[in-house]
Amino acid sequence: MSRATGFGPALAPILALALGLLAVGCVSIPEELADHPCPDGGTTLTWENFGHDFMRSYCVHCHGGPNGYSSRALNTVEAVRVQRDRIFINSALDNTAMPPGPDDPPRDERVKLAEWLACGAP
Ligand code: HEC
To answer: How far is residue 115's CA from residue 43's CA, in Å, rounded to a whole number?
Structure first.
């Protein structure tokens, strides 16, 4: 059967394109909370010493409640805890969907956010 490997050449350009898009980050696979457990030693980060400031600096001007740009409120620790998987997938580590504007948190803040959320947003 001479057609046994016939798909190889036809698929090659498609595969190359897909890999290329992945490489330049056009198609990125978001990192999820479920894949990032709380570190063994727990965390020293809390709403008081980290979460509140992070949300206030980067999120609450749009997610401040019913009169915000989004009706999704992220201004209390309870609200953040309930939505922590969605917050993670949008904002932690290399997930940069949120905030959408130019005032992005620095990478080390996104790393702290990941740890804090992974430990249950204490
Ligand atoms: C410039 C305004 C703005 C800022 C700043 C902003 N958001 Fe958003 N966000 C929106 C809008 C608009 C939506 C879409 C409406 C909705 O789903 O609430 C949204 C949607 C979301 C969603 C729901 C989408 C999903 O995938 O579940 C989450 C979670 C979220 N934002 C988290 C955050 C976090 C965390 C921050 C801060 C790091 C942030 N946002 C900063 C405007 C903003």
So the answer is: 7
